[in-house]
Amino acid sequence: MTEKQGGSDLRANVTRAEPVARPGGGEAYRLTGHKWFFSAPMCDAFLVLAQTGAGPSCFFLPRWLPDRTVNAIRLQRLKDKLGNRSNASSEVEFAGAVGWLIGDEGRGIPNIIEMANYTRLDCALGTSGLMRQAVAQAAHHAAHRTAFQRKLIDQPLMRNVIADMAVEVEAAARLALRLARAYDRPDDPAEASFARLVTPAAKYWVCKRGPTLAAEAMEVLGGNGYVEDSGMPRLYREMPVNSIWEGSGNVMCLDVLRAVTRAPDSLDAVMAELKTATGADRRFDRYCAQLESDLTARVPQESEARRVVERLVLAIQGALLIRDASAGVADAFCASRLDGDWGGAFGTLPGTIDAGRIARAAAPLGAD
Fold it and tell me: Measured at the alpha carbon of residue 151, what is the angle toward residues 219 and 228, in degrees to the nearest 5?
């Protein structure tokens, strides 16, 4: 999809597609142009956006043509990326490459967005998994490393840091898995509406939290965490890409605003999800009541999109934790994320929280 002059503005793409014989779905076209990002170039087939007379259209572009000749796909170079190096990305030129139109001309963006939505789900799932690994490494180290005559996990401030990160991971994982369940039920209108709004919201918030958490988890290991042998630098480098590809943060937040204003059923589905947890925690109830009041009083402005998405996601995570997580984790989440008793960094859970229990549970093999 991505071209150097277009980026997220796919309608600015200039790659052209001309029919070989006749236009129409399933017919062959010749594509001429470039792509600034061409992911997984080792594959045998690709989905590509190109302009026809009707606008951006989606094409199936094979590496090998039916006569077993190589298609006119010219890889220019591999990208020298910050991370994600095991998954190659390249730049490419199409010199009259043959592709077959998927669907109708001019419907390429809606066609490819369906695939992109699944990838956005994957971004949330993948980031929550990376976050879980980072915290598991940090918690294991803290459970077995002794400093100043005590295990790190027995020291109150470190215990608070580990517990705070563990709460973040559980909230992220439950949100991503709840969203995955909605994708498993595409014939349920309520679940489809839920997925419409929560997909970009979850992708935005979970992927934004990932790099911050990875940096904190790396610091738990001290200087060893900054060394490649620990594996923590690779986790840290891997985090930002999920926030960038398949729509960066601003693109996701604007998509949430579109869902709120143009697909009100999606907001209704989210509010119904929140109501399944009301009555169990006054902090959650108060937070959700204020959120619903703010969203129904007026249409949020574009400049407010990030704040709106953050509040929506925190409310959903709160509902999921209240319903399904341990009482200690749910209490910690509501006290910090929803009740405002939380600082700007991990390790600032309020003193009323049983951080020790949460931190020890995060260590994969337990603490001595």
Answer: 30
